[in-house]
Amino acid sequence: MPKKRFSSQYSKPQSTVHPSLNSSATQERSSSGSVGKDASPSVNELISSLRSSQISPSQRPAATVTTPTLPPQIRELLSWPETPTPTPRARNRRHFDRNGRRVPGPPPPRSWLDGSRHAPPEVKKRKNERAYPHDLNHLPGLAHKLHAEDDEHQRGARRLQDMCLRRIACDWEFMRQYERNNLADLPATLRMQLLSNIAVYGPEDGVGFDGLKHILMTQREDGDNSADLSQSENNEDFFRMDISGSLGWSISFRQLIEFVEKPTQQTELAAESWEETITNSLRCPIPHLTHLSLSHPVPTVSWPRFLTFAKHVPTLTHLSLAYWPVPSAAPNSTTTVMSPGRGQDVQYGATNYYSHSIDSNFREAASILRRLASSIYSIEYLDLTGCISWLPALYWKGEGEKGIDWCSEWIRLSTLHVPSAYILQPESEYWEVAQYVQAVREQMSLERALIASFMRNQARRSNDGRTGAWIDVKKDDWRAYETYWKSSTNSEDMRKRNLLETLEIP
């Protein structure tokens, strides 16, 4: 039988020749008589030449360029410029999230962080559709305003103090990490002002739970390296907490409860040893909280969780709920419908898509506000800026249902702040003017309802020996735009003017 012959096939690529030896290899190949001068190169030769061209010395990466250095004395004699400092390496040093937890793994690409709420401030893009806090004094209680009777030294000191607090707020990402052990040692007045500055000039997500904890609580390490976070003595004069723009973004209600919840008293059997002499304080970290701002939350903020939180702060006198959504126990079930096997479809939630716009049914919203009034009964100032969509819930009364009883609930309320936050311009469109006019009408309806309730219940209050407080409703001043489109002959401007003049009719 003839012997089978197999051609050897190697997976190893053919070795290439260094470009400097190409000339000798070519001479040897030309002198050989096996290959003709006019023969075309084979595939292997083409691959070899391609590989040799890729490792050509001309295309080899250049070495690191080093700047020649000289001693300072010789450099001055030769008038050479100083050696430039090396460019620092770009490193992402953000290893912790907003709650102080370490972030595992490598940093995410910057394209992923674009528009994310977990992105650092230098990467994140500010969205125009979100409303941000812009006023330091939207919640009463700050005493840093400049007064006319102050001398030049006092006015200069106040300006310097405001500049320092604003600078700290702008660099809050850095300050809350490197000054976390010193923030709680500031006076209570400065800490309250610092929170307002952070809400306006700080990060978009607000102060954060970790930063708020560093401002309110001092960590003291003992021999066992344990921290005592119940420092109510340090917050005796702390009564105002402004966390505008933080609720839902960097702080949750569960985290807020840690600052206002009173610890339960432990029994003697719960002690670890009989030598333990440290007694847990029955006071919360913020014992005298009376001013609270929860404005500008996430659109999906939970009203049931807020009602749970309100049970821990019954002594609030000033509250800001600016830009809060419509009160609802289940806001995600507005368009949800249950389809039983037999019968008609049933609305899953208490409010459907047309309850407010067509039916004017604010039963669920009024019920939630009534529960809020029973929990926080000492309110004197209530800020509902940007809440035009659910203002009728404050005076809604249905068949068999009751809203807020202004005779027995919130009897100390003296100021109700309900501006619409709409600003008209001479270039505003007609639909913007119509939206503003509708908001002003809602404010007027609320004011008339409160006046009627006050007059109707005045006799009953006088019989009980109580005198109810008059509620001052702060609304939009539409007369600030009465000069708009007054002398214009454009038909569109005349429509805007006629629509604005309808507000003069009571």
Automatic annotation (TrEMBL):
Residues 115-137 have a biased composition (Basic and acidic residues). It comes from Oidiodendron maius (strain Zn). The lineage of its organism: Eukaryota, Fungi, Dikarya, Ascomycota, Pezizomycotina. It comes from the Eukaryota. Residues 1-137 are annotated as: Disordered. Residues 46-68 have a biased composition (Low complexity). Residues 7-34 have a biased composition (Polar residues). This is Tafazzin.
